[in-house]
Amino acid sequence: MMSESVPIIQTVQLVKIYGSGENQVVALDGIDLTIDSGEFVAIMGPSGSGKSTLLNILACLDRPTRGQYILAGEDVSGYKRAQLAEIRSRQLGFVFQSYNLLPRLTALENVLLPLLYRREERLSHTERKEKALAVLESVGLADRAHHYPNQLSGGQQQRVAIARALINDPLLILADEPTGNLDSHASEEIIQLLINLNSRGRTIVMVTHEPDMARHARRVLMIRDGKLASDRKNGHHRETQSLASGEGRSS
Amino acid sequence: MIFGEVLKIAWDSLMANKLRSFLTMLGVIIGVAAVIVMVAISAGTEAAISEAINGLGSNLVFISSAFSRGGPTGGPQTMRGGLVYEDMTAIRERISGVAGVTVEQQTSVTVKYENTSLEDVMMVGATPDFPTVRDVRVEQGRFYNDTELERASKVVVLGKTVAGELFGETDPIGQTVSVNSIKLTVIGVMAEKGLVAGVDFDQQIYVPITLVFKKFMPAQFARIMGDRVRQIIVSVDPDADMDKVIEQITLLLANRHGVTLDSLDFTIRTQADIIATQESTTESFRTLLAWVAGVSLIVGGIGIMNIMLVSVTERTREIGLRQAVGAAPADIQVQFLMEALLLSLVGGLLGILAGIGGAYLFERLGGMRTVVLPYSIGFSFLSAALVGVFFGFLPAKQAADLDPIVALRHE
Ligand SMILES: Nc1ncnc2c1ncn2[C@@H]1O[C@H](COP(=O)(O)OP(=O)(O)OP(=O)(O)O)[C@@H](O)[C@H]1O
Ligand SMILES: [Mg+2]
N or C: which end of chain A has fewer CB atoms below 10 A? Predict the structure, then answer.
């Protein structure tokens, strides 16, 4: 019962050019990419090859210079900043290499931050707290809810950041080197968390340098000089995939 | 975004930097306090002045000679025009609704009793109605009466201080004093009245105006000018219609002087007119002060803008992160506007407290009369709010215009 896959991400000849004239840098040079619902994709490639640029565009944080980006059937390439913000709020969760938690907020407050900017189905104060607490619990940090970021280890901070990315129940989670600042033990924890999420149906796109991490993904994209160099599937995840897509996007 | 959350985030970020927030507010605090104190002081001064004017007597109508500036050819001042003593008598006899009429002719004189001599005493020539009109009382003896006025009797009523200085413990009634070497009999002593509008009533002496005309004015002067008076003061009966009385007086005097209503040779002003004039001058003064204080509010606003710009730079990453998790540019803008507004509103509230406290201190320690006007509180607080929104706008726009990627990379 291999599910008929629904494309979440579809890009057509995505081009991103920074600067102009002499200083012009072609960071993305015609990327055609399709990612289906429920996939776990790792993006690899040498430094400066355009991985972050691609991920930022996929995360609606940046806009392509040319080409099309269709997110869940919606062509967002020409969207204005406010519209992109709305898409980010409704459909996307982003995990940064450097966690990017707000230092003056507790773990709990950091996690519920995205709820404040939600435009529809707004929750009350207590509902927000309850939800944030539930998500924190799902990443195993319920007991650290009232700690501040500087009272948490790197791995814990990144788990808070993942909880934050999850709280709006997004279609897609994008992570730019989520384990880049962590040691191997913490990295392993984070990757297990992501695998777990994926196995419950969450679509994940992750940029990484480490083959060890990429090994966990079902599909690995290689980017070189802004072009898609290779696109291979890690076969050993087949069983979990069928199981996951059956479950859909429940959380 | 939810208003309560915007407020909370703004409040938290101000509290994260308490000293800085306070220093930023200081400009607004001082501006608001300055507006309130300045308005309070000028309103207090005004109240003191109008009380003083009211203290002169009640329901007064002042009739003054219009200055005649000579004929159209620019010749010497004409005889025509001006008020004479008989105008006063006519008003007294012919106008109804008048409680009292007097003229006042002041002359500086020297008063002697035995070996005591007082120089530069103000001698007021008036009529028996003077106590009614000026709202003063005789304490001892009596004021001169109509008969004494008619006969220009050599009698005098002394102000309290003058009586004290001349006679000490001795009973002054029936004694003779010499005023510029003319012997006058003391028939009364006035009750204490004190300083009103710069005139010390207790330092004056009072004689019938007719006596002034007869004995204290150069003879030839009186012959040419007639018994001229500068001003006639009418006290209108509280039950009478002030406007009616004024109209009757105008017609009477116009008739007596043979002038038309368009070319009156006298002016009539009521106490209310004088207070209104006084108020309009102090009010424009007050408005000026309020604007000066308003400028300091603007300076405070610039302080807010400055700190908000610093804050936007410092918090660039935070702005990027908020955008990344779904904040729209408008959310960011509202957030920073709220912070600026909060700075100015809290500053405004503290300024109101400081202003009221300052006005109180000026009254207690500075001996100044102050009246805190509610409108000055409302006006200054509203200005503070406007200042916050106005000067918060640019930083907020700058924050909202940040690109999330650029902001997230900022270090
Ligand atoms: N804002 C920018 N302005 C100009 N050039 C940029 C900008 N951002 C990225 N670039 C350039 O675009 C190219 C791709 O950058 P990108 O950050 O996507 O690389 P990356 O694959 O994520 O590298 P790394 O693995 O080191 O993170 C690089 O050559 C970089 O110098
Ligand atoms: Mg990168």
Answer: N
